[in-house]
Amino acid sequence: MGKRSGSKRKEKKNKVILPPELPPEIDDDDVVVSDEDVAFYGRDTRNAESFNRFDQEVIDRYVGRAHGQDEAAVERLYEERQKRKAPEASRRPREEDDEVDPVDALPIKTLQGELVYNIAKKARTEENTGVVKSKAQENGAEAKQGIKKDEVKGKSKNKKGDDKVGKLHSHVLEEVKEELSAEELFEKKKAQLAELGMAMLEDPESNIRSLNDMLSISNDKDQKVVKLGLMSLLAVFKDIIPSYRIRQLTEKELTVEVSKEVKKTRYYEYTLIRFYKAYLQKLISLEKQRHFYSVAVRCMCALLDTAPHFNFRESLLASVVKNLSSSDDVVRKMCCETIRSIFINEGKHRGEATIEAVRLIADHVKLNDCQLHPDSVEVFLSLRFDEDLGEDETQEQKVKPKKNKRWQNQEAPKQLPASDKKKTKQELISKAREEVDADLRAVSFTLDPRERKRIQRETLSALFETYFRILKHSISTSNSRSKANVVSPGASQPLLAPCLEGLGKFSHLIDLDFMGELISCLKKLSGYSDRQDEMPHDNTLSVSERMQCCIVAFKVWRSNLEALNVDLQDFFVQLYNLVLEYRPDRDRGEVLADALKTLLWEGKQQDMLRAAAFIKRLATFALSFGSAEAIAALVTLKHLLQKNSKCRNMLENDSGGGSLSCLVAKYNPEAKDPYLSGALASVLWELSLLEKHYDISVSSMASNILSMATLNPTQNPIPILNVNPLEAYRDLSIERELSKPASKALSLNLKKKRRGKEFVALSPDVLQKADCSVDKEELKDKLQSHFAVLRGISENERLRAELNHTLSSINMYKEYKKQKKKNMKSKIGRKKVARV
Question: What residue stretches are annotated with the CCAAT-binding factor domain (predicted)?
Fold first, then answer.
């Protein structure tokens, strides 16, 4: 027992006793000392001696009783004391909020025995009063009069108070928004868009209303948020758009009672269409703004490419076609790729979007008077048509009834007349079958062959309508400009080149009724003139475009050879003259090679006089221009010599020229007509110079052609290049680009100066009149110094090549030594491992 009592005493001693709470802190300004107190302590100083008798150590010991104890236990005791006082403070009414003093009011006693006073908040505070008065001392009549005044003025005060509260609320909101940074807001909305998008992708039917929230976020003032919202909506729509076109329900379908699942599906489709339409309207409106132009066009192109079968396709096509000739290269290429994708992937939309796009482009060309970017018409080259599209179906329809005619005549008398009931029943069955077939055709992506032919014919008619409009516009503008004596090649016909390329591709589908008019238009555009003594003055088209006119004319003639009877001699004459007008820095060499291939390579055996004129003209041309143009001309020249063996006499190097007699005894290089040039009386001396050409392919081809002089007319030399002129030109162009050293780009001023320079041909009279007298000794010295420099350059190149070879050999030897040392070290290491 003694031990227990001792332990209890120790616990009491060790027990933590918290110090009493300190009185509330009061500011010095709030402490009011009366004059009487000051006078009391001032009269007799003994009254203040009691304060000096306080023992400071006892007070500190009593207040700091918790010093040195466990901090966790002390803190826990403080928290318990605060919890005990919290409910007491909540029960006790606050005098600040009381309008009626608890002394004056009658309390209500609850079932638990607690007294509850009626408490109300103060309507207003007294101002300009330094002393606080208790409500028990106020007069009751004054309180009643104040209440009546408040009731009378209540309405006006409430209105003013609401206005003040609203202004304060808006001011606080503005301050909070300013405090939040723009990055935090962006990240918050970004996370919100991601959450809504994921919910839509997980369950579109249940969360279809989330599209409205995403659209509202896209209306933000921040441009980044708007762009992010548009792209997020694009990703959602690309995923949830169905593989069918949603049609509007009829009145009859709306009156029919359906199941809950059908109602849910209808609601989902209706909501999807509504928000999809709002999204498209948003894109079309933002397309007009500079900041959102590229994003809006990208979204429309992606939607059109992904779902060309869905609703509102017409609006998307109109916006994309309008931007086919945009000044922004990225937007233009994006729109062109989208239209090409529609033309190629017709299985997505059954060809309906193709004909709509072609018609929109045709209207766009007509509206802008053919002044568009060439890419807007070049997309037509991606169209695909069936080969039997031009065949007539009337013959097949006529043949089928003839085969069944005999059986119909035999079965007709055996059939009994049907009654009216049977007729009506058969009509109902046929109507039902037609409706079912129509529904199946609407759902399936495969088109009926007749429907496909109809769509392709309408597309082809719109296509050729656009092409013929461009041709007529080019003719009218060229005539007007030639009358005004304005020369600017290729400036007013930007769509002519892709138009001619398309006509060449689809020439086999042109109707025979338009052939004659088309050939005459092409002849005018090529610049042909019936007067042989002068060249035509119409130079509004470039040389490449005029060559393309000749190419298209020949392709049209060959694709309709059996039905078209047209003399193409005029196009040969025009090509003969255009070869001399070619400039490599201005015209396209690929078009020239294609013209040589189409008119001279692929054609039947040429007339001897015309072939000789082209052989001589091409030899001169090969000597004057680059290696790619020269190889294309030499390949054509060799082909003509093989087809016309009599023209090989031009390879003889006699002083009198060729041994064959012709209409013209002397060669006239300035003749406009190849029949009047007298090329058979000339010699191909240009080939002897081409044998020494710097390009080995050109020199070997020239040597191969010269070897034909020693062969029999029936023999041909060993072929070097088994390609046509166009392929030879492309191959050599690629090799030249690959072997070209990397050099710095020329400045814009130099480019402009080079483009501005034009080749000027001087007449013989001017050359004769010019003073060409030169000092022979001076010329000899200059030539000697020039060739000495050339020899020094060649010697320098040889020495540099030897030096590079020696350095490469030394480097290879060093690498060999290093590799050998590594192998030796690896072998030694393996031996050590094996011994261990």
Answer: 547-702
pLDDT at 18: 63
> Does residue 280 fall inside a structural domain?
yes
User: What per-residue confidence (pLDDT) applies to 760?
Assistant: 47
| DSSP character at residue 429 | H
Give the side-chain half-sphere CA count within 13 A for 525. Answer: 32
Residues 6+ apart with CB under 8 A from 627: 693, 694, 695, 697, 698, 732, 736
DSSP per-residue string spanning 459-523: HHHHHHHHHHHHHHHHHHHHHHHHHTT---TTSS-TTHHHHHHHHHHTGGGS-GGGHHHHHHHHH
**What count of other Cβ atoms lies within 10 Å of the Cβ of residue 64?**
10
Query: d(Cα 549, Cα 593) in Å, to the nearest integer?
Result: 14
Residues 285-305: what's their mean pLDDT?
A: 92
Residue 192 to residue 184: CA distance in whole angstroms:
12
Domain that holds residue 284: 176-342
CB atoms within 10 A of CB 790: 10
d(CA 286, CA 283): 5
CA 138 to chain centre: 83
Tell me the C-alpha distance between 671 and 678, whole Å.
9
Those residues with Cβ within 8 angstroms of residue 313's Cβ, 6 or more apart along the chain or in another chain: 304, 349, 353, 356
Residue 745 has pLDDT above 50, yes or no: no
Q: How many CB atoms lie within 10 A of CB 421?
A: 8
In a domain, 763, yes or no: no
Name the pLDDT band for 408 (thresholds 50, 70, 90). very low
Strands 108-109 and 115-116, bridge-based pairing = antiparallel
Q: How many helices (H) and strands (E) does the chain have?
A: 33, 2
DSSP assignment of 249-266 equals PPHHHHHS---HHHHHHH
DSSP bridge partners of 108: 116
Instruction: Give the integer Cα–Cα distance in Å for 358 and 658.
Output: 56
- Give per-residue pLDDT as tens, 77-115: 777 777 776 665 555 545 444 444 544 556 777 766 777
pLDDT in tens, 689-716: 999 998 899 999 999 888 887 776 666 6
Residue 20 has a pLDDT of 63
Mean pLDDT computed over every residue of the chain: 75
Supply the pLDDT for residue 792: 87
Q: Which of 631, 557, 635 is nearest to 600 (CA)?
A: 635
Specify the DSSP element, H or E, that contains 109.
Answer: strand 108-109
**pLDDT confidence band for 258 (50 / 70 / 90):** confident
Question: Is this structure's pTM higher than 0.70?
Answer: no
Instruction: Give one DSSP letter per residue of 224-243, joined into a string.
Output: HHHHHHHHHHHHHHHHH--S
Per-residue exposure over 574-589, b if at least 16 CB sit within 10 Å of its own CB, e if not = bbbbbbebbeeeebbb
Instruction: Report whether 253 contacts 317 (CB < 8 A).
Output: no
pLDDT score of 662: 59
User: Which one, of 286, 253, 495, 492, lies nearest residue 377 by Cα?
Assistant: 495
Domain assignment of residue 271, yes or no: yes
Q: Alpha helix locations (H) across 666-719?
A: 686-690, 696-706
Residue 834 has a pLDDT of 77
At 70, the amino acid letter reads: D
pLDDT value at position 446? 62
Paired with 116 in beta bridges are: 108
Residue at 266 is within a domain = yes
Give the other-Cβ count within 10 Å of 135's Cβ.
Answer: 15
How many domains does the structure of the chain reveal?
Answer: 1
